[in-house]
Write a structure and sequence with these properties.
273 residues; Jelly Rolls; Arc Repressor Mutant, subunit A; 2 domains; 7-stranded antiparallel sheet; 4-stranded antiparallel sheet; 45% helix; 19% strand
Length: 273
């Protein structure tokens, strides 16, 4: 659900990896509650081990990401931009949480079972009801969640880790984006996944790809699709089937792109014996 200044996600996956939730930054504050599975979370320069029911507050513009082991994971997360939490009167509650944990970047908290149930219920309502008609109620829930964290949360002990250099962060982000593209090559229809999955602008990721490869993101996606299509044709797939399997909905676009990239039509690909 995405409202003005409020973005919510309920993820429930059978398996996960760090490439799915790479270290990133965004201007929004974020509340995350782990529902199922075991994983870690990096907040700025501190790594926390999470158990179901643990809740994390991450302040805007701080580097953060989930550290998963490939197992199942389920979590609820709510992001809200600074302007919104000020207008909704949430800035005071955020300050109380910061005072509790003593960290301006945010921290992970353990909650008592009673409080876990309350926070879980409120976050589920925000994430799952998906209604734009009662935005004020959602901010009431967020205020209550922050209140419970500040009043009843116990700050988890974290491990200080060395901050990656800017070059290392860029390389990690680049690898995460290329891994995502490889896993979703037939599903990507535009570049909206960049903001929704990685929380970066298209222009930033395009600059990143130009620095690493000399080409923009969409050109990289097209080249990957064409390479895969050529392999599929060589293995016996029809040209139209290969085009569809690689995400080309329009065969004429596929044909022209193929000829431009390889210098020959799809039908001229030599089949493997």
């Amino acid at each position: 659900m995405e409202l003005i200044g409020l973005y919510t996600v309920h993820k429930n996956e059978k398996s996960s990896n760090e490439q799915s939730y790479p270290v990133h930054r965004h201007s929004s504050h974020e509340i995350l509650m782990l529902i199922r599975g075991n994983c870690g979370v990096l907040v700025s320069d501190t790594e926390y081990e999470l158990r179901p029911g643990d809740t994390v507050l991450i302040l805007g513009n701080e580097a953060h990401g989930l550290l998963t082991d490939g197992g199942p994971v389920e979590f609820l997360t709510v992001q809200f931009i600074p302007k919104v939490f000020e207008e909704a009167g949430l800035d005071g509650m955020v300050e109380k949480v910061i005072k509790t944990c003593g960290r301006k970047s945010g921290a992970a908290f353990t909650l008592e079972d009673r409080v876990k149930a309350v926070v879980n219920t409120m976050l589920r309502r925000i994430c799952d009801e998906r209604s734009d008609t009662d935005v004020g109620m959602y901010f009431t829930y967020i205020r209550s969640v922050l209140y419970e964290i500040a009043r009843n949360g116990t700050v988890k002990k974290g491990i200080n880790v060395k901050k990656n250099s800017a070059a290392e962060e860029k390389a990690r982000l680049y690898n995460a984006v290329t891994d995502y593209i490889g896993a979703n090559l037939d599903k990507i229809s535009d570049l909206s996944f960049i903001e929704h999955v990685f929380h970066y602008s298209n222009s930033y990721i395009n600059k990143l790809f130009r620095a690493f490869l000399g080409i923009p993101v969409w050109q990289y996606i097209t080249m990957k699709r064409l390479d895969l299509a050529r392999n599929l044709i060589a293995e016996g797939s029809s040209t139209k089937s290969a085009a569809l399997r690689c995400g080309f909905g329009d065969y004429s676009v596929f044909y022209k792109s193929f000829v431009k990239h390889f210098g020959l039509p799809p039908s001229a690909v030599t089949r493997k014996r």
